[in-house]
């Protein structure tokens, strides 16, 4: 499987999943909850707890970015961090700090559309990763990245956007990184898709 079909497949799956589970977009309101300097400090530290803190002031709910995606992947990255190389660990620290700091202005708002917030948060991933040496980290720690960004996550809401970002960044990094994502993904794609459609078939047969 070459890289181009992988990208096309991921885009098709994520778009199809979005159509199947289209959500109305709530407006998160602070309702007079004050801006907490302690929460902004968590953002400057790159702490995963910033996502929970953000959600406490501007609650979108468990199915939206802060808890479903931001907090989820941040914690997965932290759990996997000891298995990364030193360069990979530096990348995790710097990129995560960039991601949380990029949301400070949104945290200060009195209300925000949850769908808009999700797009803004996802849009920050590529610059935060690329500007913090993602390409070098990916070349040395590709296997560890795929333990964080598991292909099975693609079938959860919102994760398709993250996967598209990772695949596109790997393609930008050049041939070696592209080959890594192709070889690591191809067999997993087949196994996961087969499992997914088997589960759908069982559900229909009930």
Automatic annotation (TrEMBL):
Recorded GO MF terms: hormone activity
GO biological process: intracellular calcium ion homeostasis
Keywords per UniProt: Disulfide bond, Hormone, Signal
Matches recorded under Pfam families: Stanniocalcin (PF03298)
Taxonomy, superkingdom: Eukaryota
Entry GO CC: extracellular space
Span of the signal peptide: 1-18
PANTHER family: DUF19 DOMAIN-CONTAINING PROTEIN, STANNIOCALCIN
Record text on subunit structure and interactions: Homodimer; disulfide-linked.
Family: Belongs to the stanniocalcin family.
This protein's name: Stanniocalcin
